[in-house]
């Protein structure tokens, strides 16, 4: 069972609506990723998801796919990422989670991976291609190294929602829309009903992601959820401004954070 | 351990968005695979529409020329649409119809599976969209037009390495976008459970027929069955009913490209390692960080960095052997079979022919090899001409 008061991730949702920011590590370089993460925190991000680049990110739309390609071309590796996270941990207490696919974890060695997560200060992992049925692949080991395996719930989860939510720790990643990541002008899923379903069985905080880019969307969604996740909009800024993206990211995230309901 | 395991391999490693669709498919398949009406309808389609059973042809000239074992060719190239792919597609399309789906999507490498899917869609009245890597639409331009002619929309995939792997990525992404009315016709014995089982069952008609045919012609089982392996659908089809026959060697021929000691290869068993990708645990060509390797083969249909989970297990348990065959060997075999038997095989199938040419002379004259000719080579003629330095228009 998730202890909301002691879980490092859950805690950030306790007193305010949380802003969760995503970026792909190593795009355009590990040093810049470090700088950007700190800028995101200063701008008000409560939690940062760090994408470990993967050659074949099947849950991602074109914006994050391209970021993965840029990062890998620039020489990003899981080892370099752990080194960067260790450096960042000297400078911030903010919870950090990895977003990656099961293969980079599996091939690195599940035990070795989660041990390194604990040593470098990673609090959770999001693995889009590891559904409930397969989470036994990593759950025991992740838990033993105090890393939350974040539960994803989709618009198509329907009769699975409560089964998934019951075991969720850290936060619940509620996928707002069908399809892959990417900016959307409209989110049509009936999030209120899904959230009510979840709430019957779980107190774990719920953050909504996929398609959110504007303060208006963030405001509306944070009315019912505990937080919003923004990825593609951030990665787009990095794609456009590269090494000079820091200030623009700061301004963008600041305006997004301010738009959240209180 | 979750469902759909072959030893340690297989499983269902896919996004939550697709889980209910996979469960729905599994339940529908569990129901219809034992439904007599469904099986009769499928058999009628296979026989009357696709032209089954396919012939088991004694390649007398080739056998004599190689001077060893008797070689029989299982002629999947004679099926409607020109390859074994139609066996699986008719089964899945019929299943999708029963499930009330109205739209089929599929990946394709060489275009054989895309053509078969577009064909079934035309026949049964589905909307159809095919995803094909740009490398492959370039080298298999004829099949692209063929799919369009059949009423399908062809999406050219420009992400990643722009080949079969990326076409699978893009089809999976498309499925998560629109899952309610859409069935993903996966073309090989790969992906999340229940696909490896469904595709294997629909392809196992190959070995069911071949086993009966060889017993009728020779009064005994073959000593070896040889098939090419990308994801492995024609191979599992050719192997499946021989698996309990321990005396029958099962040999899968992987695409070695320029050679297994070069980076330009797609031989997964020879050069890959254990991983989890495209919904399954199996062997993949990848680096130490689990990044999937860009693979290469002259054959677009074998140009895939993984292998189906049942093959991975047949390898682990040593029930089947997997051997690498290079571009050069495959092209030689392509030309050899054309010249010797008047049969132009698909460049994929030519990988199996090539290994039969190595193995047959080492065997006795009363021993028997069955080679699965998974498809016909009309689609490859222009590419082979280019390989030989002759520039001809398609």
From TrEMBL, chain A:
<dbReference type="InterPro" id="IPR018204">
    <property type="entry name" value="Trp_synthase_alpha_AS"/>
</dbReference>
<dbReference type="InterPro" id="IPR011060">
    <property type="entry name" value="RibuloseP-bd_barrel"/>
</dbReference>
<protein>
    <recommendedName>
        <fullName>Tryptophan synthase alpha chain</fullName>
        <ecNumber>4.2.1.20</ecNumber>
    </recommendedName>
</protein>
<dbReference type="InterPro" id="IPR013785">
    <property type="entry name" value="Aldolase_TIM"/>
</dbReference>
<feature type="active site" description="Proton acceptor">
    <location>
        <position position="60"/>
    </location>
</feature>
<comment type="similarity">
    <text>Belongs to the TrpA family.</text>
</comment>
<dbReference type="Pfam" id="PF00290">
    <property type="entry name" value="Trp_syntA"/>
</dbReference>
<keyword id="KW-0057">Aromatic amino acid biosynthesis</keyword>
<keyword id="KW-0822">Tryptophan biosynthesis</keyword>
<comment type="subunit">
    <text>Tetramer of two alpha and two beta chains.</text>
</comment>
<feature type="active site" description="Proton acceptor">
    <location>
        <position position="49"/>
    </location>
</feature>
<keyword id="KW-0028">Amino-acid biosynthesis</keyword>
<dbReference type="InterPro" id="IPR002028">
    <property type="entry name" value="Trp_synthase_suA"/>
</dbReference>
<dbReference type="GO" id="GO:0004834">
    <property type="term" value="F:tryptophan synthase activity"/>
</dbReference>
<comment type="function">
    <text>The alpha subunit is responsible for the aldol cleavage of indoleglycerol phosphate to indole and glyceraldehyde 3-phosphate.</text>
</comment>
<keyword id="KW-0456">Lyase</keyword>
<comment type="pathway">
    <text>Amino-acid biosynthesis; L-tryptophan biosynthesis; L-tryptophan from chorismate: step 5/5.</text>
</comment>
TrEMBL record, chain B:
<dbReference type="Pfam" id="PF00291">
    <property type="entry name" value="PALP"/>
</dbReference>
<dbReference type="InterPro" id="IPR006654">
    <property type="entry name" value="Trp_synth_beta"/>
</dbReference>
<dbReference type="GO" id="GO:0004834">
    <property type="term" value="F:tryptophan synthase activity"/>
</dbReference>
<comment type="pathway">
    <text>Amino-acid biosynthesis; L-tryptophan biosynthesis; L-tryptophan from chorismate: step 5/5.</text>
</comment>
<comment type="subunit">
    <text>Tetramer of two alpha and two beta chains.</text>
</comment>
<keyword id="KW-0456">Lyase</keyword>
<keyword id="KW-0822">Tryptophan biosynthesis</keyword>
<dbReference type="InterPro" id="IPR001926">
    <property type="entry name" value="TrpB-like_PALP"/>
</dbReference>
<keyword id="KW-0663">Pyridoxal phosphate</keyword>
<protein>
    <recommendedName>
        <fullName>Tryptophan synthase beta chain</fullName>
        <ecNumber>4.2.1.20</ecNumber>
    </recommendedName>
</protein>
<dbReference type="InterPro" id="IPR006653">
    <property type="entry name" value="Trp_synth_b_CS"/>
</dbReference>
<dbReference type="InterPro" id="IPR036052">
    <property type="entry name" value="TrpB-like_PALP_sf"/>
</dbReference>
<comment type="similarity">
    <text>Belongs to the TrpB family.</text>
</comment>
<keyword id="KW-0057">Aromatic amino acid biosynthesis</keyword>
<feature type="modified residue" description="N6-(pyridoxal phosphate)lysine">
    <location>
        <position position="85"/>
    </location>
</feature>
<comment type="function">
    <text>The beta subunit is responsible for the synthesis of L-tryptophan from indole and L-serine.</text>
</comment>
<feature type="domain" description="Tryptophan synthase beta chain-like PALP">
    <location>
        <begin position="50"/>
        <end position="375"/>
    </location>
</feature>
<keyword id="KW-0028">Amino-acid biosynthesis</keyword>
<dbReference type="InterPro" id="IPR023026">
    <property type="entry name" value="Trp_synth_beta/beta-like"/>
</dbReference>
């Amino acid at each position: 069972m998730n202890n909301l008061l002691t879980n490092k991730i859950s805690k950030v949702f306790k007193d305010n609506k949380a802003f969760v920011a995503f970026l792909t590590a190593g795009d355009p370089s590990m040093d810049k990723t470090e700088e950007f993460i700190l800028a995101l925190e200063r701008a008000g991000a409560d939690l940062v998801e760090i994408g470990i680049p993967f050659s074949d990110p099947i849950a991602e739309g074109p914006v994050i796919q391209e970021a993965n390609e840029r990062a890998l071309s620039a020489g990003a590796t899981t080892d370099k990422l752990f080194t960067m996270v260790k450096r960042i941990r000297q400078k911030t207490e903010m919870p950090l989670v990895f977003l990656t696919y099961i293969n980079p974890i599996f091939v690195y060695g599940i035990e070795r991976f989660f041990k390194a997560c604990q040593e470098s200060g990673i609090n959770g992992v999001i693995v889009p291609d590891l559904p409930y049925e397969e989470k036994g692949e990593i759950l025991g080991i992740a838990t033993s190294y105090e890393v939350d395996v974040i539960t994803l719930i989709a618009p198509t989860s329907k009769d699975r929602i409560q089964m998934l939510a019951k075991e969720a720790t850290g936060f619940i990643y509620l996928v707002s829309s069908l399809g892959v990541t990417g900016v959307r002008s409209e989110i049509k899923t009936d999030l209120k009903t899904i959230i009510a379903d979840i709430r019957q069985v779980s107190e774990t905080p719920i953050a909504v992601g996929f398609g959110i880019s504007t303060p208006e969307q963030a405001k509306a969604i944070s009315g019912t959820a505990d937080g919003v996740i923004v990825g593609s909009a951030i990665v787009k800024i990095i794609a456009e401004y590269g090494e000079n993206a820091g200030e623009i990211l700061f301004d963008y995230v600041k305006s997004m954070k301010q738009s959240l309901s209180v | 351990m979750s469902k759909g395991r072959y030893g340690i391999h297989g499983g269902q490693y896919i996004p939550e968005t697709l889980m209910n669709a996979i469960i729905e498919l599994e339940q529908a398949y569990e129901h219809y695979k034992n439904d007599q009406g469904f099986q009769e309808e499928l058999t009628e389609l296979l026989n009357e529409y696709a032209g089954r059973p396919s012939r088991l042809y004694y390649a007398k000239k080739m056998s004599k020329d190689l001077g060893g074992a008797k070689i029989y060719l299982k002629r999947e190239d004679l099926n409607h649409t020109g390859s074994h792919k139609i066996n699986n597609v008719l089964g899945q399309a019929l299943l999708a119809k029963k499930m009330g789906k109205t739209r089929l999507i599929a990946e394709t490498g060489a275009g054989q599976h895309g053509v078969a899917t577009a064909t079934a869609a035309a026949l049964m009245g589905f909307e159809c969209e095919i995803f094909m890597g740009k490398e492959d639409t370039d080298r298999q331009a004829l099949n692209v037009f063929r799919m369009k002619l059949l009423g399908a929309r062809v999406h050219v995939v420009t992400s990643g390495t722009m080949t079969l792997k990326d076409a699978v990525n893009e089809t999976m992404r498309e499925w998560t976008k629109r899952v309610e009315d859409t069935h993903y016709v996966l073309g090989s014995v790969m992906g999340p459970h229940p696909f490896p089982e469904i595709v294997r069952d629909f392809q196992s008609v190959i070995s069911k027929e071949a086993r009966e045919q060889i017993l009728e012609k020779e009064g005994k089982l073959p000593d070896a069955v040889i098939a090419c392996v990308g994801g492995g659908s024609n191979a599992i089809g050719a192997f499946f009913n021989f698996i309990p026959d321990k005396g029958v060697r099962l040999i899968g021929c992987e695409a070695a490209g320029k050679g297994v000691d070069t980076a330009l290869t797609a031989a997964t068993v020879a050069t890959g390692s254990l991983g989890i990708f495209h919904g399954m645990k199996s062997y993949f060509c990848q680096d130490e960080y689990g990044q999937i390797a860009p693979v290469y083969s002259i054959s677009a249909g074998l140009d895939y960095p993984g292998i189906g989970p049942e093959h991975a297990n047949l390898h682990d348990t040593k029930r089947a052997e997997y051997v690498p065959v290079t571009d050069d060997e495959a092209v030689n075999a392509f030309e050899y079979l054309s010249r010797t038997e008047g049969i132009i095989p698909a460049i994929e199938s030519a990988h199996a022919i090539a290994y039969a040419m190595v193995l047959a002379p080492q065997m006795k004259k009363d021993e028997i090899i069955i080679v699965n000719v998974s498809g016909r080579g009309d689609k490859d003629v222009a590419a082979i001409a280019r390989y030989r330095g002759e520039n001809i228009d398609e």
